[in-house]
User: What shape does this take?
Amino acid sequence: MLNIKKINTYYGNIHVLKDVSIEVNEGEIVTLIGANGAGKTTTLMSISGLAPPRSGEIFFLGTPIQDLAPNKIVSLGISQVPEGRRIFPYLTVMENLDMGAFLRKDRDGIKEDLDYIFDLFPIIAERRNQAGGTLSGGEQQMLAISRALMARPRLMLLDEPSMGLAPIIIKQIFDIIKKINTENKTTIFLVAQNANLALKVSHRGYVMENGRITIADSSNRLISNKQVQEAYLGGV
Amino acid sequence: MDWEYFLELFLGGITRGSIYALIALGYTMVYGIIELINFAHGEIYMIGAFTALIIATVLTMAGFNQVAIVVIASGAAVLYSCAYGFTIEKLAYKPLRNAPRLSALISAIGMSLFLQNYVLLAQTSDFLPFPSLIPDFEFWEPYAHIISSQELVIIITTAIVMILLTFLIKFSKIGKAMRATAQDMNMAMLLGVDVNLVISATFIIGSATAAIGGVLIASHMGQINFYIGFIVGIKAFVAAVLGGIGSIPGAVLGGLVLGWTESFFAGYVSSDYEDVFAFIFLVFILVFRPSGILGRSVSRKV
Assistant: This one.
């Protein structure tokens, strides 16, 4: 579904991504783990078109997207839940959700998805008239995921969904991610600090070090990999 | 206390304030989205007034009736100003969007000077008489000593524009996209918003309200020249800062506060020093509320 082929991305003169190749198949949950500053967020921004690669190719459902504008990429079916959630603080929860469906015109479909989201996160339905900035961290993460779902994406990019949240909320968020994948058939590409939980819900994983992919394997094997355990799983 | 005189000054303040507010909207909306002080905005207002003057003169010679002249001249002023606003952004600001903020600011000042001199050369440096587009209504005669028909029209037109704008910003798709873009441009892009379109729309809307302001005030004052955009532009900018730059209700409130300050000072103290007093008042407010009356205190993301 998503096929990243040897991309090189720069921020100014800094060479961030070096020959990165990643593949995500339809229906999968794939995790990208790596230390701070390894280039995980840049990878997602390259896919979304906010940090287009200087060389290499990105195919989505067979279409090359590396030169497309961000709004074109969204319209093809890729949504991102960025790091730090980035809720619009002065828009209401409902307006934040409306913004998620910005490119859609099918009123009935939007209504359907809204009902699905309110079912998934009853708390979001309760808070729909509040300003986004007044929500707690966990609620904001739920809203950010909901907002991305409102685009009815085929591929959802999730950047650090557990950042700054209480363990019980993190567990809840990952359950929902799993649920969205199985129920809604949304393919998910996940970037995670909490590699343990992320690998448990995902099918495959990649390890990134200094802008390069160093290991690519199934999640099960990654969890039992000595190197990965020591570096990213707190030596479980 | 002479209440009738007070009321007169109060309403006069609203009239001035309305004009400042109409122009301040353009400053504040553009700043809200791309954090640029568009110094060429005052010139948009001046160009609106000139367009209306030219069209109205031609139509008068052609023998059109008063209503047709007002509608066509104002419409042309709005369209022409919008075209200018749109083009200025594309030429002078868009190429500098990722450059240091100061570069775009200097580009804006350059654009302002260019437009002033362009109109100076294309037209004249003299004051040109501007026809009174708004007649004295007969039914308003009994109250005309407190507020003239013209001032009444200015206040009502401004109120209508403000209400329409509020609806546009609050409920329309482009309005929501504008607010989202102002709060987090990259996030808006990640949701599929074409920010170039949003920025163009912002310049067009701001130019339209400035042109309306230009036609109203020119018709009220009765004369215009190439330089009118400068001082009114500065005052409208003051209004925007006073209200809290980036905030639309702030621009309206700032305009009114500035209008009242000038009107009351001119009426009770001296009209020679009204500008001085207006700017002293600005300093005074900013000392106590640095982000303006309705401005949000800035918390920078690190």
Observations:
- The longest strand of chain B covers residues 128-129.
- The radius of gyration of chain B is 19 Å.
- Chain B has a mean pLDDT of 90.
- Residues 3-34 of chain B form the longest helix (32 residues).
